[in-house]
Design the sequence.
């Protein structure tokens, strides 16, 4: 497990970077989901993978018994997933509105905010 | 008041105001709630600063979970100063927005988003926990996304896509860095990290430090990660771009200052030399980019990048000269005031002259001499003319680099200042001096009296602040020196958060 997770993170990041290098903004967004989940897995794995017991504290106790999973990274990952989901939902709507307004998903053609100087053509 | 109340107050207030501003968004009450609320937040910030100046760094634990396990709020001099300056910018922009923001945008929740943005910025300055910093970054980001695309014009959509995507990548890098740092040290409390990193593998730490550097670097818009900034800052309404220009990138700089003085000090020869190169490259590319632009706000946007370089320069030299770090903090405060002010001036110019493209406007000096005067103050201050605040900020940084015999750094710092004057005179020459191409004469009296007051009062207020800092710099230098000393010797900060420092090794960390 300890070795498997980092390899998986590596594969996800590689795939994400490949997707994000595309001109199509939608592909970029898919890459973004992948890389944000790779980050979540990194946090998860960095807490140490304990396959033993859930971190439950018995009633009346102040600390869990020995040998339970570390609960903190799980809490962090949960927070990060929620935030990431919210941001992704926003980005998706933004790109959709952008597509409606600008009529393109090609980032090279999005030159409204930074118009090219007169007499120059967009690089194809 | 006790720290348990003083610390969360500047943070909670904007959220409460945001709720009320949202409830009253359909009438004129919303904007006044935003103005009055911003004034109250500023008072809360000032109360915190006074407390910190009298008693040294203060900390409080949220939910009574003792550090390093709970979330800590902590304010040393730097944090408190940043909270106050956020309050000042927030108030100025809230007043400005009364006139500029249209009822349609208000109905979509402009004021609520604006206050949430201020809450996120304040939270980032006050937190003492790394993951909590990430959460505040996100609060700030999502509010800024909303503000940036509010209005929904094509240009805004275009800018929004670039801004959102690039900022999300930086956030993910930051988050991965947090994960790795937690895996290495077992804690995310910044004060606790100061101790635990001493036992960690220095090579791995440098890798993590570089990840943080890139993550914060995108936020701070340093070379070569700044492309999102000039692509986006000239598209939203002027109130929005003023608060972005003043505050957002500075949060990145603040986070760098905090992490690279408190935690990542294991390999200063590598990280801070890298910072030095980044700083100089940022200064130079920013100012050259500005020289090529012909739009009022795009010139100013590139100048943000250029000025960020000076602040990073101060941080890069921090461990060679405390004077340089002091200069960076002074620069931070000066820059927020001046840059927000210039964007506000650009807004008035747009309103009365009918545009921001320099070739299409003009005649502002003849028609609106008051505006011309109010532009010259922050513009000269930005370029570093005595006796304005920018002169002292640049003077300290240049002197610090001369003191440690980095002649080439001092040369670039001065040359970039000269180029800044070039850009400012370009704006002055086209927008103010030459006659308006349409033959009209734009004047402030073209606007109704209420609008005029709401637009000019914040500009004049910020300009007066610049002059005060310029004429009486000792007090401000003193506070900045204190902030720098606290960063370089964080004993008081650590004691405030963790209690008495442990005698050996790291304090107890949770068992895995």
Sequence:
């Amino acid at each position: 497990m300890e070795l498997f997770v980092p390899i998986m993170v590596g594969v996800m990041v590689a795939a994400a970077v490949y997707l994000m290098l595309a001109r199509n903004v939608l592909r970029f967004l898919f890459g973004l989901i992948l890389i944000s989940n790779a980050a979540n897995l990194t946090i998860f794995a960095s807490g140490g993978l304990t396959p033993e017991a859930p971190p439950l504290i018995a009633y009346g106790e102040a600390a869990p018994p020995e040998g339970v999973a570390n609960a903190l990274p799980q809490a962090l990952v949960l927070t990060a997933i929620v935030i990431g989901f919210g941001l992704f939902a926003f980005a998706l709507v933004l790109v959709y509105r952008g597509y409606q307004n600008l009529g393109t998903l090609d980032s090279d053609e999005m030159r409204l905010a930074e118009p090219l100087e007169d007499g120059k053509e967009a690089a194809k | 008041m006790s720290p348990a109340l003083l610390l969360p107050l500047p943070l909670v207030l904007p959220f409460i105001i945001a709720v009320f501003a949202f409830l009253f968004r359909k009438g004129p009450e919303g904007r006044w709630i935003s103005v009055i609320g911003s004034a109250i937040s500023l008072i809360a910030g000032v109360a915190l600063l006074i407390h910190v100046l009298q008693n040294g760094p203060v900390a409080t634990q949220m939910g009574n979970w003792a550090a390093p396990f709970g979330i800590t709020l902590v304010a040393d001099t730097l944090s408190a100063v940043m909270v106050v300056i956020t309050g000042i910018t927030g108030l100025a922009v809230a007043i400005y927005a009364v006139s500029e923001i249209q009822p349609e945008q208000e109905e979509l929740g402009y004021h609520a988003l604006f206050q949430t943005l201020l809450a996120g910025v304040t939270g980032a300055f006050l937190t003492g926990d790394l993951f909590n910093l990430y959460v505040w970054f996100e609060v700030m980001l999502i509010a800024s996304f909303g503000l940036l695309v509010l209005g929904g014009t094509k240009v805004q959509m275009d800018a929004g896509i670039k801004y959102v995507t690039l900022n999300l990548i930086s956030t993910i890098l930051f988050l991965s860095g947090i994960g790795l740092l937690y895996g290495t040290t077992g804690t995310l409390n910044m004060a606790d990290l100061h101790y635990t990193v001493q036992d960690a593998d220095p090579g791995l730490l440098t890798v993590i430090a570089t990840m943080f550097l890139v993550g914060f670097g995108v936020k701070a818009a340093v070379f070569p990660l700044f492309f999102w900034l000039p692509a986006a800052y000239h598209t939203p309404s002027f109130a929005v771009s003023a608060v972005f220009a003043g505050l957002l990138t500075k949060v990145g700089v603040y986070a760098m200052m905090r992490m690279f003085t408190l935690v990542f000090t294991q390999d200063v020869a590598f990280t801070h030399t890298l910072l030095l190169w980044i700083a100089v490259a940022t200064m130079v590319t920013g100012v050259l980019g500005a020289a090529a632009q012909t739009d009022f706000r795009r010139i100013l946007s590139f100048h943000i990048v250029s000025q960020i370089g000076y602040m990073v320069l101060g941080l890069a030299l921090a461990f060679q000269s405390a004077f340089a770090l002091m200069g960076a903090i002074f620069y931070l405060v000066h820059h927020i005031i001046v840059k927000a002010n210039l964007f506000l001036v650009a807004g008035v110019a747009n309103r009365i002259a009918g545009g921001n493209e320099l070739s299409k406007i003009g005649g502002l000096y003849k028609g609106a001499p008051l505006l011309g005067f109010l532009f010259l103050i922050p513009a000269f201050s930005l370029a570093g003319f005595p006796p304005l605040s920018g002169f002292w900020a640049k003077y300290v940084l240049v002197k610090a680099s001369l003191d440690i015999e980095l002649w080439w750094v001092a040369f670039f710092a001065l040359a970039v200042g000269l180029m800044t004057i070039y850009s400012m005179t370009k704006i002055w020459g086209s927008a103010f001096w030459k006659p308006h191409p349409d033959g009209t004469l734009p004047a402030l009296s073209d606007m109704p009296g209420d609008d005029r007051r709401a637009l000019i009062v914040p500009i004049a207020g910020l300009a007066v602040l610049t002059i005060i800092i310029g004429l009486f710099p000792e007090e401000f230098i003193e506070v900045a020196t204190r902030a720098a000393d606290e960063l370089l010797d964080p004993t008081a900060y650590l004691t405030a958060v963790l209690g008495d420092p442990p005698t050996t090794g790291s304090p107890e960390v949770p068992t895995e």
Notes: DSSP finds three helices and no strands in chain A. Chain A has a mean pLDDT of 83. Residues 71-102 of chain A form the longest helix (32 residues).
